[in-house]
């Protein structure tokens, strides 16, 4: 399949066309997703956290980028407006929910696990930032991608889906998200090339939607003064978590009194890469109240060199 750099733009009223674009390209820009007032409110709610954030040391983000993690907890407007948006739910139900049937004795039972928000975060890319490396967000969930270029995309083969709402107009210059439309059907052994990517430039009130298997990256910010703010909400399957929720059943002091092996097997370390962080720290460091100095760092060693 030829790489298409053109990113489709579809009005939020045309759900069938949005679904078609996601099946074809793995992504699209949704026009008229939200309104200016809501975007302004979310921008204001996250700004104190962006101001407090520290530069990143490592390869995950350029050091000029600031983030607001825990967007759902910190922005009431993002949580109660976008996270629960009816169109978002329609799309996560279509692409991420999972339904299977099993026998209990001789009776067939059918269950649907509904998508949950895996991470929600604002990305504020500052002047001088380099582009991120092209990546698939679902690397964190260890997806083995089969090559679907010949067969076409099979709905249900992704375990993640992202929605990114710009806080400002995003441009080629200020770091609009880069993406390779159609790369959601590539097999795991195909490397993405920057020249294959296009920029998902957006107006305020748009929303970028992409599957977890789509190659993309935060763009470079070559402006002198503009900050590129985008509010991201990333969904995954509802069962990608432990069956018993011991995070709520045990206090921090109890967990800190356990052996290192027990803490690890109970999920208080990260699953590589990146799964389970809190405040950009592994859970145990967070529980211990360990200081992070002036910067945050990669969770996993870089394999670039
Ligand atoms: O900032 C962006 O446009 C994308 C960020 C991203 O892809 C990531 O951090 O995984
Ligand atoms: Fe990403």
From TrEMBL:
<protein>
    <recommendedName>
        <fullName>Phytanoyl-CoA dioxygenase family protein</fullName>
    </recommendedName>
</protein>
<dbReference type="Pfam" id="PF05721">
    <property type="entry name" value="PhyH"/>
</dbReference>
<dbReference type="InterPro" id="IPR008775">
    <property type="entry name" value="Phytyl_CoA_dOase-like"/>
</dbReference>
């Amino acid at each position: 399949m030829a790489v298409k750099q053109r990113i489709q733009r579809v009005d939020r009223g045309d759900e069938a066309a949005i679904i078609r674009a996601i099946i074809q390209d793995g992504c699209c820009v949704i026009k008229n997703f939200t309104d200016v007032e809501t975007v302004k409110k979310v921008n204001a709610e996250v700004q104190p956290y962006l101001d407090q954030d520290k530069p990143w040391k490592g390869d995950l983000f350029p050091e000029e980028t600031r983030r607001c993690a825990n967007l759902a907890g910190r922005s009431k407007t993002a949580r109660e407006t976008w996270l629960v948006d009816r169109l978002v739910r329609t799309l996560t139900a279509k692409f991420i929910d999972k339904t299977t049937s099993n026998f209990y004795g001789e009776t067939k039972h059918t269950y649907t696990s509904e998508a949950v928000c895996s991470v929600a975060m604002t990305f504020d890319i500052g002047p001088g930032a380099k582009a991120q490396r092209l990546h698939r967000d679902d690397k964190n969930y260890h997806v083995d991608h089969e090559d679907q270029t010949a067969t076409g995309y099979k709905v249900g083969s992704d375990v993640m889906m992202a929605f990114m709402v710009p806080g400002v107009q995003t441009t080629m210059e200020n770091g609009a998200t880069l993406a390779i439309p159609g790369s959601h059907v590539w097999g795991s052994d195909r490397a993405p090339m920057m020249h294959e990517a296009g920029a998902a430039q957006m107006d305020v009130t748009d929303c970028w939607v992409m599957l977890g298997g789509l190659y993309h990256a935060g763009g470079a910010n070559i402006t002198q003064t503009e900050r590129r703010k985008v509010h991201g909400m990333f969904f995954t399957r509802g069962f990608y978590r432990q069956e018993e929720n011991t995070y709520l059943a045990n206090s921090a002091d109890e967990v800190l009194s356990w052996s290192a092996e027990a803490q690890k097997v109970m999920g208080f370390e990260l699953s590589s890469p990146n799964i389970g962080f809190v405040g950009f720290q592994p859970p145990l460091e967070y529980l211990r109240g360990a200081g992070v100095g002036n910067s945050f760092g990669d969770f996993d060693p870089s394999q670039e060199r």
